[in-house]
Amino acid sequence: MSYLIAAVVVLPILVILIQWGTVGNGEQAIWQHLFDTKLDRLLLNTLILMLGVGFGVMLVGVGLAWLTSVCAFPGRNFFEWALMLPLAIPTYVMAFVFLGLMSYTGPVQTVLRSWFGNEVYFPNVQASGAVILVLSLVLYPYVYMLARSAFLTQGRSMMDAGRILGKTSWQAFFKVAVPIARPAIVAGIALALMETLADFGAVSIFNYDTFTTAIYSAWYGLFNLAVAAQLASLLLLFVALVLFAEQKGRKKARYTQHNSRNSQLYKLKGWQALAATGFCSLILLLAFILPFFQLLIWCFEIGVEELDSRYLGFLLNTLGLGLIAAVVTTLFALLLAYVKRLPAGIVEKRWQNIAIRISTLGYALPGSVLAVGIILSFTFLDQAILGAAQSFFGLSIRPVLVGSLFALVLAYSTRFMAVAFAPVESGFERINPKIIEAAKSLGASPARLLQQIYVPLLKPGLLTALIIVFVDVMKEMPATLIMRPFGWDTLAVRIYQMTAEGQWERAALPAVTLILLGLIPVYLLIRNSRPVR
Amino acid sequence: MLKRVLFTTLSCLILCACAEERQSVDSTDDELSAAVNIPEISNPVIVYSSRQEYLIKPLFDRFTEETGIEVQYQTGEEGPLIARLQAEGEATFADVLYTVDAGNLWSASDKGLLASVDSALLNQNIPEHLREPQGQWFGLSVRARTIVYAKDRVDPSELSTYAALTDPKWKGRLCLRTSKEVYNISLVATMIERLGEETTQNIVEGWVENLAAPVFSSDTLVIEAIAAGQCDVGLVNSYYLGRKQVDDENYPVALYWANQDSSGTHVNISGAGITRYAKNPEGAQRLLEWLSTEEPQRMFSELNLEIPANPTVPSAEQVAAWGDFIQDNINVEAAGRLQADAVMLMDRADYR
Questions:
Q1: To 5 degrees, how large is the angle CA A61–CA A62–CA A65?
Q2: Test mutation, B20, B48, B188, chain A, max A CBs within 10 A
Q3: Domain annotation for chain B: domains and CATH numbers
Q4: For the segment A362-381, what is each residue's pLDDT rounded down to a tens digit?
Q5: Which of A98, A101, A96, A128 is nearest to A112 (CA)?
Q6: Is residue B122 within 8 Å of residue B138, measured between CB atoms?
Q7: Do A147 and A188 touch, CB atoms closer than 8 A?
Q8: How far apart, in whole angstroms, are the C-alpha atoms of residue A528 and residue B275?
Q9: Confidence (pTM)
């Protein structure tokens, strides 16, 4: 059963791997060229980005999660949910807003020049530091959400136990809370890193050369899709290593939740409270308030020209695609996670785990490479179907799969399986095996077990999965651009069309709309993540 | 429970497979859009376009008004569009591939995706250097990639050729767009054709030496940087400056036609070709021929401030204000043929 689902998700990845079979003179020449010129710089840049963003989201995400779930300080109730808002902003939107604000021609530097003269120093806005900053600000909510969820369900009882045994609050944090939340934190960082590896929109706006931009260069510039797919498969290798490290890092500790009654929060006082509020405010300002207001300003300046009758269509398409993809992907993830836990032989278990691991790699693939993988595999299938229709029924029909909504939704499922799987899997892991054993010993059938024990306990995880996939699909751009059927233009596509021409102000209106739409599920997510009392 | 979940998933997927073509927002004729499911019966022309919708919709609307033939289009990036066309093979229902940059058109014909068209009208309206020798694609509008400069800091007499921008007097004063952008690739490709690889590489390395700032991701940013004083000269496509000048008559950046005393300014095209497995080649040919006639040619110029490919049609006022210029008359297909060489040359010169 799990093989079937994994196969569906794995097919496009396999098709891409098969491209290694195409290594002719042209491909060899390109690889030689890459080695000679930029491969080392690409690898270095990609590594720097990963390390930088990894650290960035960890520090920000874990720090904020800790503050808002366990401490009390002025504004805590507000920040608790507000800090999730950046989840609604796509990376490429943050990128162009950042450059619009901070580049030489933007307001910040223009004002500085008017105060201090033309030679005033300002750091290079296209350097790695800038890219890391932008990506960290956009992606920290993944770590924030998962870490916060873990901290909340642990409750303070574990922490209190630590303190009773003589640790200070810092020690209790580092030695008790963080290790127990480690799977969640690591899962969040892994997601953020995979998103970073796959990103093309933001790095191309910064013109920052990474592995991903090399893939596009091989495809568009050198007209060689085979090399592009080969580079993409190397990217997958990177990702596989990340995931492998994550798995090893977990060790064999038991992370199930214990008594989750929520006791009182730590009250922060004096400078500590001030620092806490300050930190939260700063992040919120940089990651959401500033970008959003800059977009609003651009909207009112020029963007209103953009508003016409087609906008309702874009909106509905975006919502519709998001909803369908979210439901399908979450169902797949649920099935995979459930099947993983059914009893099976040791050898079969290993294969199952491998299949599941492969299924989650789609997240690191650049959207357009994945799309081509699907188009290639579906073209093959379509030709078989068309051929069968012709020979058995004498019908000449249009291609069924290529260019269909089904193909696009499948692309989304492959791409976002990791995003749905992580919270569902986390949810499963937090279920105390004792409850399961108790139910079984009372004679519950597997179906009843699923229905009355698993699903209610998993609901938060399932809902999280649905919502994150929904938001991610709405923000997705490259795959949608290639594979959308006639009449299914989305807001993300619209933004791309404007930013590709450097017309950032015109992109502001669809960007604002996308963010507002994204706020709805984020609100639900926030409500959903409040601890049950 | 498992069965119920499976059933729900399968029904979702089946619904997806059925819910394909919606009321198309890209159609010029809403009543006929239902006909798209049976292309061989009705007569819409289906276009795969990498041109933005706001640039092509007015033209296609006008075509439908005049001829009654409906045009449906799908927009996307060039690379994926061509890849999709290639993957669809015989099963494709695209009739026309309409894209920018001769390199992309060359790539499509190199992959055998386009059909040769023998049209006296097209051959007459479109100059030889702007169309493929076997009639596989035709340029429909022209954009020049030339020098722009800051009016108050640069005297036009200081400018001459693309190569002259490598002169040390421009050190720290030059702004360029990224080498990944196809327009720059085409410029370098035609330079390789004219000047040879070694000379071209020296020129590109010279440009990189003179950069005032890391290369930008779009031409608009180059122009804005010049206006703000970050640099004094740059290389951009003509229409980007045109757009700025339309918004602000006194925009501080001006255009200079490069290479007027030598090979002529580098030009590129937006163009189209009929696909090899087009289901409606007659309609497609009518569309292409119509696009080469006076009114649509003038519309190109007015909509996007480009230069009409048809030399008998005058440009829009804003464009004509830049003055006449000599185009480089190398057949633009060189841009495609030498594209890979150009990309690798720019990598070697560390032009990012």
A1: 85
A2: B20
A3: 43-142+268-315 (3.40.190.10), 143-267+325-348 (3.40.190.10)
A4: 777 777 677 777 777 777 77
A5: A101
A6: yes
A7: yes
A8: 52
A9: 0.81
